[in-house]
Write a structure and sequence with these properties.
Layout lengths: L3 E12 L7 E11 L3 E5 L6 H9 L6 E6 L2 E5 L2 E2 L7 E5 L10 H6 L9 H9 L15 H13 L5 E5 L7 H17 L3 E5 L3 H7 L2 E6 L2 E6 L1 H6 L4 H6 L4 E4 L1 E3 L2 E4 L2 E4 L11 E4 L4 E5 L5 E8 L4 E7 L2 E7 L10 E6 L4 E5 L3 E4 L6
Parallel strand pairs: 3-9, 3-10, 7-8, 8-9
Antiparallel strand pairs: 1-2, 1-4, 4-5, 5-6, 10-11, 12-16, 13-14, 14-15, 16-22, 17-21, 18-19, 18-21, 19-20, 22-23
The chain binds adenosine-5'-triphosphate (ATP).
Adenosine-5'-triphosphate binds next to helix 1.
Length: 357
Amino acid sequence: MDNFSLKIENLTFEYKTTFKDKWSLNNLNLAIQNGELIGLLGPSGCGKTTLLRLIAGFEQPSKGRILINNHIVATPDFLCPPERRGVGMVFQDYALFPHLNSWRNVCFGLRRGQDKSRAEWLFDLLGLSDLRNRYPHELSGGQKQRLALARALAPGTSLVVLDEPFSNLDVGVRLKLRSELSAVLKTCSASGILVTHDPDEALAICDRVAVMCDGQLHQCTSPNDLVHKPSSSFVARFVLQRNVLPISLSEGIIWTPLGKLKYPTNQRIINANEIIFDDQSLRIEKNTKGRAIVEGCEFQSNHWLLRVKFGIYKLRIYMSLGKSIRPGDRCNIFFDSNKTGILFPGAIKCPLNELIE
Ligand code: ATP
């Protein structure tokens, strides 16, 4: 028997709105092993919440099926109700019961007479023991979110869905809670799906990260693989904030808007049409006649991050703190020949060796 807490097979779902304005989740496949934490990333409106709603039982698939702990919970002909799925839910706005104190909030999902030792243990684990008589309005944001997590896990839940649980919290609390989350889930042997808008958060704490765009799953892999082997230019651009430029290929040369690059040796590049590279792959020099113009300059504690416009293209460029290029300055941009880009489709590594005439 498979060791999956959640299995999604060929899942398709459509919101039924007006004829011209329909939106669908298309043929999505995902399997989550017991104890795994999966980060779900994607642009606004790509379907993250809809996927959580399908897993939790608030929507029914139009094709495909969902299995939780090897039991089928949803098909186009069958819908197991949310309260019988054993899925815990944690939301951005905590969704606690205002008229119940902390302890009664956590015990709310337990059946009459059910053993409360797990709830006690979770209270301890999440540092809530001294707050059991307080009501939600008497708790800080971080305490409320801990309470919401304890409530989601108390009934013995093996799968928790978390919809941007940290987005209302300040940076310090957010960093602390997010590192506690994976440890708490592992301690409880529970799996989690964490929707977040923050790629760094997903890469930092999740075992795997799933990237969605427009109702489709683009890639689901380990943070390390995602950073080093993005499967598409969308993943590289959205998750890793890489620069993307169009290219054309002819006569052993890669033509980019910034200049010509040598064809990588020993590679057959058949139909690549984009090159992707990070913000440290370009050199920038101030020049009043330069074709690039600096639009923004962000301080990043140990370097500057420049936002530069080059014709119709927007680029992000790393600049050391000692340099003084500022918004409005004209510049020239060059590839750094020590760096490597990736050509898509095909994910082919390409040294950034510029051909100088
Ligand atoms: P965000 O990151 O902004 O929260 P999301 O990735 O969670 O977005 P969803 O809320 O899942 O996106 O919405 C996916 C798409 O479905 C959007 O285009 C949205 O407009 C549409 N949608 C959401 N709810 C409904 C609904 N009840 N009826 C019709 N369309 C809907």
